Amino acid sequence: MTRTAAPITVFMPAFDEVEAVAGMVRRVPAAVLGHPVRCIVVDDGSADGTAEAAADAGAEVVRFAANRGLGAAVRAGLAEAVQAGSVAVAFLDADGEYAPEELERLVAPILAGAADYVVGSRFAGGPRSMRPARWAGNRALTLWVRGTARRRFAEPGITDGQSGYRALSAAAAAAAEVVHDFNYAQVLTFDLLAKGFRYAEVPISYRFRTTGTSFVCLLPYLRRVVPAVRAELRGERSEADGLSGDPYQELHQPRRLHRAARHG
Ligand SMILES: Nc1nc2c(ncn2[C@@H]2O[C@H](COP(=O)(O)OP(=O)(O)OP(=O)(O)O)[C@@H](O)[C@H]2O)c(=O)[nH]1
Ligand SMILES: [Mg+2]
Q1: Does domain 8-241 fall into CATH 2.40.50.840?
Q2: Is any atom of ligand 1 closer than 6 Å to the C-beta of 61?
Q3: What is the pLDDT of residues 42-93, one digit of tens each?
């Protein structure tokens, strides 16, 4: 690796994940494909010591003073990665469901110049342990996302609409807009497809969380997600969601806990 290699930034949105977050941070590889890897935890107003555990494990921590939602956390992580001049940015849940060791799979198509937006698919043949109800919900929602992407954007290849493991090129990260604070899963995909970024999928492993509490509850989830997807497809941008004006405004609000060097 040369001293001048631009970093890959990996961030994990985390809300009350104290049991899992430190282990996840320690599993992030120090370098991938010749690029140093920066690890950031975006702490979404946790009250259980998540931010401190992440910092002690060596992550940089961006901390919201109060809980804002997964979409807001991902927006802030993307902005932080762009500001740092990252060659690629990846993000994954902090709850242990996805494997930091698989980072290279996600960023390789981006570094090879073959894709701008890579989604790790849990339904592409990798080892998977998922509860039946969650499997059914994911399959149904994926059919919706897949059909919409095919009709609206001529993208037929989506097999996992809700994956929590994704990677973006520097250009895609700079252009990405997450239209609501609650979530990013579907709206980020439609946003990037609408902007012409190249989509790719790679198989990943998955195992359902064994710690913490899930944020997904189907009906309330749909009540928030469906209107946001409609707004995204209509091209609407909401001031309340922080999408007008300064793209870095998210970063001016969170409090930085402290920075720690992860490797020594
Ligand atoms: N619960 C919750 N999680 C958030 C929030 N903001 C960020 N997160 C983090 O976002 C990630 C995804 O949330 P999860 O609750 O795991 O969502 P999920 O993976 O779709 O659902 P499960 O499969 O049940 O874990 C986790 O790392 C959370 O800690 C929030 O406002 N609420
Ligand atoms: Mg999860």
Answers
A1: no
A2: no
A3: 999 999 999 999 999 999 999 999 999 999 999 999 999 999 999 999 999 9
